[in-house]
Structure formats: structure tokens, C-alpha cells
Amino acid sequence: MNTQSQKTPGIIHVINGPNLNMLGKREPDIYGSLTLDQINGELKARADELGLCLDFFQSNHEGAILDYIHAAFEQGPAGVIINPGALTHTSVALRDALSMLSCPIVEVHLSNIHKRETFRHTSMIAGIATGQLTGFGHYGYSMALDFLHALAC
Q1: Is the dihedral of CA 139, 118, 15, 96 positive or negative?
Q2: What is the value of pTM for the model shown?
Q3: What b-and-e string marks burial along 1-18, b requiring 16 or more CB atoms within 10 Å of the CB?
Q4: Is the separation of the CB atoms in 88 and 125 below 8 Å?
Q5: What is the pLDDT of residues 110-153, one digit of tens each?
Q6: Tell me: the pLDDT tens digits for 43-97?
Q7: Quick one: three-class SS letters along 52-93?
Q8: Which CATH number fits domain 2-152: 3.30.450.20, 3.40.50.9100, 1.20.1250.20, 3.20.20.60?
């Protein structure tokens, strides 16, 4: 899924990784009952209130996410909100792509990855992210957006 707001400088990219297209269906006791479209709708409404422009992207394929980040790099993004899904724990390539960006990056996880299976405790992204929000459910996305807005003001 790739829905875009107007392509202008100062865009905040909202990137969601593998399996996040299944939100609302997949383990709602862990990830909540909202779909990704519903979360994106809430985030878009908040961005409109703040006067911010968002670009949403989701893929189950690591290479597609890397290509998207490379394209964002060329635009000079204002910020990135990323929920890498399972790529959090495994993808050096994703970390390397994100580290090219000079904008703030906020890593978001619906569940608290530090209270789950041991293999989920490690984030390849945390070391290059400006911040990490984990365990706040869908509110983490809005919290990330508010943080990026505060940095810009």
C-alpha cells in the first residue's frame, strides 16, 4: 500500500514493514484491533491538525522498503516514523538505509518488544533512531508525529 500526500519538501515518511498490512486480523490481543488503514487515517487527521504532510508506505518485502527509503533520501525528508515489524531484529540493510538519512527517525512498535520473546528484545534500528516508542499500541504513531512536530517548531 502506498498512498501519498502532496509531494513537497518537508514530508514525513511513515513506513510499515512486514505483516503490518494484517493489523486488525493478526493477533489482535497483541497488536490491537485497528487496521493499518485506520491507524493511517488517525495519523493523517493529526497531521492535518498540525499542518504536516505525510507519505505512507507499507511492504512485506525488505527490498521494496529499502528502495522507498532511498527515494525518500533524494527528497530530503523532514522525518521518518517507522515500524519495521520483524525486520527490526534482523535487517542490517534496513539500518544502513535509514542511517543515510539526516532527518529524525522514530521507531514505533505496537507491542512492547522488551516484554516479549527474547529474540524480539534486540532492535537493529534503535542505535540509529532518534527515539523508540514501544508498547503504546496505535498511539505510538501519533506520539511519534507529535515529537517530530515539536522538533520542527
Answers
A1: positive
A2: 0.91
A3: eeeeeeeeeebbbbbbbb
A4: yes
A5: 999 989 888 788 999 999 999 999 999 999 999 999 999 999 87
A6: 999 999 999 999 999 999 999 999 999 999 999 999 999 999 999 999 999 999 9
A7: CCEEEEECCCHHHHHHHHHHHHHHCCCEEEEECHHHHHCCHH
A8: 3.40.50.9100
Q: Where are the domains of the chain?
A: 2-152
Query: Burial of 37 by CB count in 10 Å (0-12 exposed, 13-18 middle, 19+ buried)?
Result: middle
CA distance 73 to 15: 13
What's the confidence (pLDDT) of residue 123? 96
Cβ atoms of 17 and 85 closer than 8 Å: yes
> Cell numbers at residue 97, please?
538505509
pLDDT on residue 4:
46
Active site (catalytic) residues: 31, 109
